[in-house]
Amino acid sequence: MTVTLEDIRQAAQDLVGQVVRTPCSHSRTLSEISGAEVYVKFENLQYTASFKDRGAFIKMSSLTQAEQAKGVVAMSAGNHAQAVAYHAERLGLAATIVMPEGSPTVKVKNTRRFGARVVLSGETIDDAAVYANKLAEDEGLTFVHPYNDEKVMTGQGTVGLEILEDVPDLDAVIVPIGGGGLIAGIAIAAKAIRPEIEIFGVEASLFPSMYQALQGMPVTSGGRTVADGIAVKTPGNLTMPVVQELVSDIFLTSEEQLEHGVQTLLEIEKTVAEGSGAAPLSALLAHGDRFAGKKVCLILTGGNIDSRILSAVIERGLVRDGRMVRLRIAIPDAPGTLAKIAGIIGNADANIIDVYHQRAFSSLPVKQADLDVVLETLDRDHIVDIVGRLTAAGFLVRELGPDESSLA
Q1: Which of 55, 135, 324, 369 can pair with 318 through a Cys bridge, CB separation 3.0 to 4.6 Å?
Q2: Reduced to 3 states, what is the DSSP secondary structure of residue 93?
Q3: How far apart are CA 88 and CA 101, in angstroms?
Q4: Measured between alpha carbons, how far is 390 from 329 in angstroms, rounded to an integer?
């Protein structure tokens, strides 16, 4: 590995005026929740809403005039795509971006908005890479790799410089890992400046490729994850040795934990994080004992999440927290029953969102029916209170789980 602290410092100078110098802010509430002293590096405040702006600019600005004249090609699930497209437009380069089919609509739309030619190919970043490399060969384009490139790593490493400028006595940094470009760059910079600092990586449990590769395990990554930005099956051969040498540990985080991280950052920090951007917080909350009393920086890598996905994450989080519930009530199919139930629920200070009155699909006798109600509630104790009131009024009530259909 030839990337040095001096290279990263030079990149930081080159990036002045080209990218946002994002804040690294202390979070009082996240600190109280986790037991650590938590700082958040808000890379979602970059112009394209992710840290990828850094490496993309450093790479493309280093190209020869001949390479710039032919144009560039990249593969990405969205953040690298937008960064390459944005800086290519600024530098006057033609850009082609190959994105996996099913990439978030907001990322595809924004990439096209910057003038890039967008091609959808394959299910994963690795699938998209195959076609991107073919285009590079067929059309003479320069391939701008999202992570397995020293210039890209150098640009991403400037995140490490900035966080230590803002919080020089940090104990630990938690960084999402896809292919490893960001964590490698941060680790090179941070460990050179402060050797005692610990760098931790976090991967989605469905895509533990770096963890598996370093453990000598077969790589079994795959599936649909909310953290599409780190859904990488093949870690970089340039980044992996750096991670092996400089990173203390890699955590794996579940889809539920990732969703909880997105929701928590939205509610507490009032900021939008995509799944991969919320991964460090998810890891911190799951491994609180490891970081208790330490100064920890979470790298919030990006905020490009599809609004439909964000909406679903919020609703699912409300259900997990007991702030939304679906109850099934067996009722006599008679006038006035619905009004009585609505009165009980209203007196318990809950709000009815939806009502499903089931006759044909109910297994109850013909003179009875199932009434499914979706309620806004305060917490789990509030749900217990509502169920108790309905039961005391003579109704048979049960809470429907997330996997139970309203027609079941």
Answers
A1: 324
A2: coil
A3: 23
A4: 9
